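Standup notes
- DV: blocked on the single-chain target, sequence here:
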Amino acid sequence: SGKTVFDRLESLYWQHGYHGERQFNLFMEGSAGMTRMKALMQKLRTAPPKSLGGIAVKGLRDYLVLSGTQKADMVIIDLAIPGHHVAIRPSGTEPNNCTCSTKPRPR
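- DV (later): unblocked, structure below
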């Protein structure tokens, strides 16, 4: 059809929209870092924030206890704006916590 891959992707974005994602890593070295990572995850589970970046928190999904899912050390914080959420998990290979924020982008 003479379209490039970019042209086709652009067409799909206009048709369906897309989500923007950004990843942040918080490095915590050594055994003290591992202790801090575990404490951070525990605090998110027991006392989640009421807001993030000025946006109210609507709910929390804890993949260690969520039924019907594969168990994982990950927490997803759902924000009050539909489609916006933040996923937080410890890295499995490096001494850091990975934080990914996702939000829909308009068409």
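- Follow-up: The chain is about 25% helix and 40% strand.
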